[in-house]
Amino acid sequence: MQEVSPEVFNRLVRVLEINLGQFDPNRTPRFNATEVAELNFLQGDVIWNTTLNVLQVYSGNNWIDLTDNPNTAGYEATTSLGTVSVITGGDITINIT
Questions:
Q1: 42: domain range?
Q2: DSSP per residue over the chain, as a string?
Q3: pTM over cut 0.70
């Protein structure tokens, strides 16, 4: 877990308050990984990273993802009672009891 300074947190909250329900990636500054590495950003800057497809804020040292990457692959299951079996390609079985 990355610690964020109060100044960055307050600026981020303000940005979210202003944009809540109105996020438009076409209106948010968009940069790819090469541009992010080459350009200078200020602490608290919010961008849309087109390489990762995530909204990010700059902490002054590194970028913090504000959204989940929609391109990540994986499986997720939640159960409270009973048995769930997941079989993929006939090779792997996961039993959750």
A1: 6-65
A2: -----HHHHHHHHHHHHHHTT---TTTS-EE-HHHHHHS---TT-EEEETTTTEEEEE-SSSEEESS--TT--------SSS-EEEEETTTEEEEE-
A3: no
Could you tell me the CA-to-CA distances from 54 to 6, 88, 93, 94 in Å, in that order? 23, 29, 32, 31
pLDDT above 70 as % of the chain: 57
Q: How many separate domains does the chain show?
A: 1
**pLDDT tens sequence across 24-60:** 556 788 899 999 999 999 988 888 899 998 888 898 9
In a domain, 74, yes or no: no
